[in-house]
Amino acid sequence: MQNLFIEHGFELSQEEFEQFSLFLTLFREYNWHTNLSAIRDEEGIVTKHFIDSLYGATFLQETGDMQGKRLLDIGSGWGFPWIPLKIVLPELSVTLLDSVGKKVKAMNHFIEELGLHGIRAIQERAEILAKDDIHRGQYDFVVSRATAYITDILSWAEPFLAIWGRIILYKMPSDEEQKDREKISKKLWLKLVEEFSYELAGKERILSIFERRK
Question: What is the number of domains present in the chain?
Fold first, then answer.
């Protein structure tokens, strides 16, 4: 497993490697009785879930000190990207959001078993939670991995951002989405500030970062 991370440029500490090994075991055990993912082999889980998630750390580590920063993960599913990211960026305060109860239950199980602190999973729809002053305008980063069409996910994410907060989206290439994102970005006072692509399991992925300007 360690070699797969190294192939993509991620060098783990011994403690991080042990946590990912435990997470792999926990995920496969839970997947056996709850069907979390169609990806069941070790290499597939590590590459398509763990390593894919970690590409967001490249950007986050470039932004400087993460201490005290708050992050919201919309449509967290089974904890990706933010359980893997929390393993390598433990100082961040993370809220995982999903509307499906069994997914939230699984995420909280993983969090507890991995002994992670400063991270929790809650069940709610983004549109509803955005009306709560405890969450609205309170996050430095909002992240989402392959959750929804660009116009929807940016509309859901923007209300949670603090001033100059950023949205990080994990996407597959799409000409249609590229055409629509300029219009929705302008409407929401967002600006695309960085974008980079990477290859995973023979397919191109894109990480897009938007910044709130108002």
Answer: 1
